[in-house]
Amino acid sequence: MFYFKIITLGCKVNQCESAFLEQELQKSGWEKVKKVEKGRPADLVIINTCIVTQKASHQCRQEIRRAIRENPNAYVIVTGCYPQVYPEEIISIKGINLIIGNKGKEKIPELINRLSYSDTKLLVETFSKIEPFICMRSDRFFNRSRAFLKIQDGCESFCSYCIVPYARGPYRSMKIKDVLYSIEQLSEKGYKEIVLTGIHLGKYGIDTGESLEDLLKEIGKQGYPVRIRLSSIEPNEVSDLLIELVAEQEFLCKHFHIPLQSGDNKILSRMNRKYTREQFSEIVRKIKEKIPLAGIGTDVMVGFPGEDEHAFKNTLSLVKGLPLSYIHVFPYSDRPKTAASHFKDKLSPEIIKKRAKLLREVGKKKREEFIELCNKKIFEVVVESKHQNRFFKGITDNYIKVIFPCSDEKKEQYLRVQIEGVKKGLALGRPV
Predict the structure, then answer these.
(1) How would you write the pLDDT of the chain (432 residues) with one tens digit per residue?
(2) In this structure, is the dihedral angle defined by the CA atoms of residues 368, 299, 264 and 256, taken in order, positive or negative?
(3) Cα 70 from Cα 33, distance rounded (Å)
(4) Which one of 187, 277, 337, 380 is at 20 to 30 Å from 98 when CA atoms are compared?
(5) Alpha-carbon gap, residue 73 to 68, rounded angstroms
(6) Could you tell me the residue ranges of all domains in the chain?
(7) For the chain, how big is the Rg over CA atoms in Å?
């Protein structure tokens, strides 16, 4: 028996692709090292990497070295965004057998049959201007209630701080018929929620003559016994039709994640973002008008080059005044090969840290206020995991994480749960 481990860092797309690799390896007879066998050395280790920030790159290097140290006889493969963009930083680490970028990642299971333990092999290909969408389907995820489905890949936005377009290549989309097939397969496996994800989800269908709204309409016609959640959507891609579909269709989760990045128009322009603070506010207003209890989350970057005190206050005042349900705060991270890496007016780490702390405090307050808004109301919850004793943790359709008492035999069902308060950022509830 041969054993493998997959270490995944980064976004939901990486999680989807790792799930595919795991599934294909198990089909070929490999055995996954289980959590309870944490100390067991593996014969094969795959590290699926992220480079969105300097911290992510550092964590990747740590994980690679740890994997080599803890699995001394393993064949070690490093794949994902890091080798796609910065292969020279990885090839210097001794103990890696194969380095392969995002292009060709799906070939890893078949490549394993031709592996040799000779010098490090580098398989990093440059993306062409037109790439096919590679279906990397999986029906095996970490829990039995929620699944992720990658329906789009690639980005061509070239925000001035972002390395992702270099790591993921051009826009490409899964065809609608293939998405429907994948959802059907996942629903038959018992998943209660499917998260549609992509590198730039709002550009779904731009290469096939379709659109995200077209896809959602087709999903709605099928009547699958699952609910559908959308991952991150850019502000200028949240159309009136999309808002109407989420408002009207019961199968769509009442949840939007819309990255803001900055609440200052000059900084947004310098970031090469294609909207203004006023447009972002209008989108949030439209959603709340149509769906009063919608969960609306956002990403905010602090410390972007040129972000003076006035620009930061603009961001702070904007997020304070909007009915957001949570905020993900990201300190600016300098990424070589991006336009922003050449900007001169960079901020000190101390200022960035201080601003990040202030925004996180606002985010914590927003989360608690949103839970309070939903207090005493009943939501359909998908059970995710056991919390402790007879309590389980689940998620509402409007993206509130809630803890509630539940028996084991009901943990894979939809449950109607009433929100009863908040504790340490989590909602407390009771089944009704």
Answers:
(1) 889 999 999 999 999 999 999 999 999 899 999 865 667 889 999 999 999 999 999 999 999 999 999 999 999 999 999 999 999 999 989 999 999 999 999 999 988 877 776 667 888 999 999 999 999 988 877 666 889 999 999 999 999 999 999 999 999 999 999 999 999 999 999 899 999 999 999 999 999 999 999 999 999 999 999 999 999 999 999 999 999 999 999 999 999 999 999 999 999 999 999 999 999 999 999 999 999 999 999 999 999 999 999 999 999 999 999 999 999 999 999 999 999 999 999 999 999 999 999 999 999 999 999 999 999 999 999 988 776 778 888 999 999 999 998 876 555 568 999 999 988 778 999 998
(2) negative
(3) 13
(4) 337
(5) 8
(6) 3-123, 128-231, 266-288+295-373, 378-431
(7) 22
What crossing angle do the helices spanning 212-222 and 176-188 adopt, rounded to 10°?
Answer: 40
Q: Hey, what CATH topology would domain 3-123 get?
A: Rossmann fold (3.40.50)
Going by CATH, does the domain composed of 378-431 fall within 3.40.50.1000?
no
Domain topology for 128-231: Transcription Regulator spoIIAA (3.30.750)
Fold: same for 3-123 and 378-431: no
Please state, in angstroms and rounded to a whole number, the distance separating the CA atoms of residues 327 and 364.
8
pTM of the model: 0.93
HEC readout, the chain: CCEEEEEECCCHHHHHHHHHHHHHHHHCCCEECCHHHCCCCCCEEEEEECCCCHHHHHHHHHHHHHHHHHCCCCEEEEEEHHHHHCHHHHCCCCCCCEEECCCCHHHHHHHHHHCCCCCCEEECCCCCCCCCCCCCCCCCCCCCCEEEEEEEECCCCCCCCCCHHHHHCCCEECCHHHHHHHHHHHHHCCCCEEEEEECCHHHCCCCCCCCHHHHHHHHHHHCCCCEEEECCCCHHHCCHHHHHHHHHCCCECCEEECCCECCCHHHHHHCCCCCCHHHHHHHHHHHHHHCCCCEEEEEEEECCCCCCHHHHHHHHHHHHHCCCCEEEEEECCCCCCCHHHHCCCCCCHHHHHHHHHHHHHHHHHHHHHHHHHCCCCEEEEEEEEEEECCEEEEEECCCCEEEEECCHHHCCCEEEEEEEEEECCEEEEEEC
